[in-house]
Amino acid sequence: RRGAVVAAVVFVGSCVASQAAAQTTSGQQQPIAMMPQPAAAFDVQVPIDEALAGGIWEAHLNHGGAIVRGVPQALARMQPPARLEIALTFDISGSFQGPLRAAVTLAKQFIDGSPHGSFETSFSVHAFGTTQLRLGKESDPSAAKLLVEKVLAQPSQSRTNLRSLVREVIEENGRAVRFPEGVREVVVFTDGGEESTAFDGYTIITEPAMAAGVIVHAVVFQPNTPSPQAATLADKLGEAVEKTGGYIIRVNPSSPLAAQTRDVLGSAANLPRSLYRLRVEACGLSTSGPGLHEDDLSFTVTAPGQPPVRSKSLPAKLDVPQGGTPA
To answer: Coil, strand or helix: which one is 104?
Structure first.
């Protein structure tokens, strides 16, 4: 049987809206993504501390009930190994030429910190400015680090179309392995600059990432001379990647390899090790007809002797059949 079984897991399901099941919680984890299935059932990946994974799991919707079905599967312990697709994506615009070498060094540390020994792992390397360059793909971490070096040989491009080109990488990465059988990550190394005026916001990144279950991390190098515009762009990019379950890593250009930067980068690289796959069924949803029901999904996990831990909410689009879902 594919997947590791977590011992002593208890599931609680209720068709009472989550407001009625509210609990005092400590800590937050971001559910990664969901893929709608027939009858408002869907798969979700949730990062959780292993010590909590064997506790009582509850799923919450704002406008209906939800039940966790089956046993949570630790993706890092599946046999045969689950796939892990990591796309390392570098800004090669003129403004990023100074930090680029430090970005390559951090990318190598990300490769070393990833749980590649627990997954069937592939690393692809991309560069972008006005266009996206696909520099190759490797499964061996040492070969992947050599591939990353090729970024330094690429001629700089005149401007940065960050949002549209990162979206391309997200979409490619999302097709690389079927959700939720594996983990897909895109890691963007940039100063956050954006010259394109074709898009107003960052939904062009968040929507395809959340629809396909792709985690996006951003390693953002702050400018040597701070500016309100640069700070705003970095904040908006950070908000976007956090919605996908990813990390925003802010890098001080005067000390790009500082211990704090490497610590946060290490947490981002190791994230797949904490992911559990869950199957959730919605219940008690009534609609005037079949179609998508938009809601927010979250989880509470309670381990013996510990306070409940509530996840952050994930926007959920549920495929509700004619007549709603069973009560």
So the answer is: helix
Residues 138, 148 contacting (CB under 8 angstroms): no
Helix (H, G, I), strand (E, B) or coil at 50: coil
- pLDDT of 27 reads 36
User: Rounded CA gap, 96 and 101, in Å?
Assistant: 10
CA–CA distance, 68 with 143 (Å, rounded to integer): 40
DSSP letters, 242-291, are: HHTT--EEEE-TTSTT-HHHHHHHHHHHTGGGGEEEEEEEEES---SSSE
Q: Distances from the Cα of 304 to the Cαs of 13, 21, 41, 42, 74, in angstroms?
A: 18, 18, 28, 27, 20
When the pLDDT of each residue in the chain is averaged and rounded to a whole number, the result is 82
Q: Distances in Å between the alpha carbon of 168 and those of 38, 62, 111, 281?
A: 28, 33, 22, 31
Nearest CA to 187 among 251, 241, 240?
A: 241
What is the model's pTM?
Answer: 0.85
More confident residue, 133 or 28: 133
Is residue 74 within a helix (H) or strand (E), and if so which, with residue range?
A: strand 65-74
Task: Please write the tens of the pLDDT for every residue from 174-210.
Answer: 888 877 789 999 999 999 877 655 556 888 998 889 8
Helix (H) or strand (E) holding 322: none
SS3 27: coil
Cβ atoms of 130 and 158 closer than 8 Å:
yes
Residue entry with tokens 């908006």: 236
User: How crowded is the C-beta side of 153, counted as CA atoms within 13 Å?
Assistant: 6
- Lowest-confidence segment of 232-236, 252-256, 272-276, 293-297 by average pLDDT: 293-297
